[in-house]
Every structure is written in structure tokens, then in C-alpha cells.
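To: structure subgroup
Subject: Chain for Friday's discussion

All,

I'm putting the inputs and outputs inline so they're searchable in the archive.
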Amino acid sequence: MTLKYKFTPKKYQFKVLALTLDNLLCMTSVGLLQKLMRQTAVYGLSSIVARLLNYLLVPLYTRLLSPDEYGIVTEMYSYVAFLIVLYTYGMETAFFNTLRSEEENKYTIYSTSFWSLLLSTVVFSTILCVLSQPIAELLHYPQQAHFVRYIALILALDTLATLPFAWLRYEEKALRFAIIRLITIGANIGLNIFFLVLCPKYADSVAWIKAIYSPQMGVGYIFLSNLISSALCLLLLLPELLAVRWEWNKTLWRTMVWYGLPLVVVGLAGSINEVLDRLLLKHLLPYDTARNLAELGIYGACYKLSILMTLFTQAYRFAVEPLFFKEAGQKDSPNFYANTTRYYIAVTWFIFLGVLLFLPILQHFIGRDFRSGLSVVPILLAANLFLGLYYNLSIWYKLSNKTHLGAIISLIGSLLTIVLNVWWIPIWGYLGSAYATLICYSSMCIISYFWGQKHYPIPYPIPLLLLYTLTALVLWQIDSRLFIASAVGQYGFKIFLLSAYIGIIVYLEKRQAFSKQ
């Protein structure tokens, strides 16, 4: 299959649209294409909407909670990101991988996977619950051991839902998958509003609310809301749970465990890169515990302002990853990978520029007490941009079956994250964490690019990518250094700069298209 890109001076079309249309026309199976598009849209949109709904809790938390209280929430959920990797130990991916070769034994594979997770989950969560008081004291929450128990139960319920969700994906029941996820998120939001907003307001006037509400619970209601919604999720998955049989295949289980265990290393490395900074801040900042938690809460809230970059990156991954593997082995696939990377860079620098130009408006997404950390936003936006770029640049080791090199890159990133955070947090505070995140992801991109060119050469237009980058950075700096007293004039100029970026990118894209004719 050959991808063709036709552009004429009379009627210019954005190349990303032309690429997509050409790609669609070249597919040999229309039915497969329609299925791919439908599944990608449902899974992608449901995940994005779910994440967006979760982000809507941030304005609530940062207005009802103090920075140190929000710091507790940030820290505890950072531990969840680590522990969920251990709880699932790659069994979901192993389930799909085993199905490829033994689909006729799908119920045995499904049942064996589920019983394995159930047994290990009971063991892990029991240990956490039994040791909840010592763990709470180690975390400097001696009066909140119930927080640890809540987290243990949340992890248990979410882990047990992993295989039923995987079964839905295998059965191609994308709509049911999406509905259950959205109902769960909606329940979590509703419970948060009930416990944090309505209960304090009506506890004195409504008897039944007074009977169930305790002001001393505080941020514990956030974890309780999550626990109840996770239980609801598992209840909604009851039909998939009933598909589990009383079967256990020892040989299959060993195969899946040995396949999944290396993924634990990769998953833990990814968790280190993503959340370790939020765990280290509380312990490495040179203040008392309350102040450290407040700094952590401020950093965690400002991190959420990179929402647009994060959401686009996730949507992009859902849309493009199936095409990456679909195009593997085709004659023009290297050009396809190079072009999609170029489009990604153009769009993400537009998001970067747009967020920073209109940060005076977007800062109201978080409470006033949290806005002292806005200096980290440009750094974290760029870091998330490079993380998405890494998803593009890492396609080579997935296609060339050199996933061990991908694991090495992740471990290098983790080492950088650990060393730089330990070094810089005592000096620069959460600003040091932000820079460590940026250096981690950008270094992974650089390593992946050079290793990839050796094992799976892709003709990335590096000068053009650097030009897009320079354009966005220069326009951002122009805005930050130019003072306009009038609010109308100020935002008019911001719109002009954003439009200028679009115009420059369109011009460069047009030149790129003509140069290939």
C-alpha cells in the first residue's frame, strides 16, 4: 500500500486530513476499517471524557481543601499509581497476548487470569489492611490509618475489574465498556459533591445526613467516594464476572505470569517517571510536614493545568496507535510515522502556546491559594509534550521486537527522575521536580530517536520540528515580555500571536508539501 499526498495551490488542504483520508482509502477491508474507527472512537472518547470529568473535581478540591489537605490526596493517589502495577503484574496484557495463540481456550485463559488476580489481590490488600497503622505512622498520618485501608480496598476493587474490562474489549463491547466507565466516574463526582458540599451544608438541618456525616473525616470522604464508586463498577460488571469459570490451568498461568512480570518493571519505571516527584516532595522539602504537604498540594494542583496537553496526547495515542501497527511493513510506513510525528509536534506546540498565552484566565481552574506555583506550568506542559513525542519515537522498538531496549530507556528515565529530584528538591522545591520531569522525558526522546535510527530508520524532518518548536517559544517569550495596559488590547495581541503561529505552520506545511511534488 502506498500513501499519496496531493496538494495544489488552488485548494490547499491540511496535510493531517489528507493523510488520514488517504490512509482510509488505502485500507483493503472496509469492514475492518469501520470496526477500527468505531472501537477507537468509543474507547478513546470514553477515556478522555472520564479523565476530563475527573479533572472537574480539581476546582472543587482546590476551593474546599487547604493546600496541605490536597497534598494528602495527591500523595495517596501517587502511591496508588505504583501499587496498581504490582497488583495487576501485567496480567491484562498477558491475557490478550495468550488469546492470540489459544483463542479456542478463551474461557480457560480468562478464568485462570481472574483467579490469579483474585488470589494475589486478597493477599496484597490483607497485608495493607493489617499493617495500616504502621504504614500510616510511616507516612506521618498516625490518626488516619483508615486512609490506608480505603486505598487497599480501592486497589482491590479496581484490580478485580481489570479482567472483566479486558473481556469487554475482547468481546468488542465498546459501548458497554464506555457506559460503565462513565457511570463510575459520574458516581464518584456525585459522591464527592454530596460528602464535601452538601453534607457540611445540611448536616445540622437534615437528620439522616447528620447521622452519617462526620466533619472529622475530612479528605477521607474523597477516598470513601472512590471506594463506593469502585464497588459500583464491579457490580455493573457482574455479567462479565459470571463468565468466569471454576477453571485453573497451571501451564497457562505460568506462561502468562512469565510474560507479564517484565511488564511490571516497565510499569514501575513509568510510574516513577510520572509520580515519584509528588512522593519525594513531602520528604525532601526543607520545611515541617504541614508546609511540605502544602507545597505538594500546590504542585499537584498546578500540574492539573496541563490538562489540555494530557488530553490531546491521550486522544492522539488512541487514534494513531492502531494505525501505527496497521501500517507496519508497508513500503511507505516510515514516511507515515515521520508525518504523524510532525503533525503531533505542530498541534502540541499550539496547545503549549495557547495555554500559556491565556494562563491568566485558565489559572482560575484552581483555587487562589494554589496559584503561587504557576511557574511550573510551562515546564510541565513541555514535559507532557515530550512524553507524547516519546510515544511516537518509541514505535521502532515495538515494531522491531526489541522491547527490552524500551525497558532500558524507561529505566534510564527513572534513574534521571530519582537522581534529579533528590538533588534539586532541597534546592528549588517543586520547581526542581518540574525540571526533573522535563529532563526525564526529553532525554528519553533523544535516546529513543538515536537508537531507533539504528534499528528502524524513520526520516523524521528534524529541522522542521525544531522550527515549529522555536516558533512557539519565540511567540511565548514575546508575549511574556510585552506589557499592554488595556485588557482588550492585551488579549487581542494574544489572539494575534496564536493566529501568527497557525499562519507560520500552515505556510511551512505548504512549502513541505510542494517540495515533495
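Points worth raising on Friday:
Confidence is low (pLDDT under 50) at residues 1-33.
Residues 162 and 395 are 25 Å apart (CA to CA).

D.
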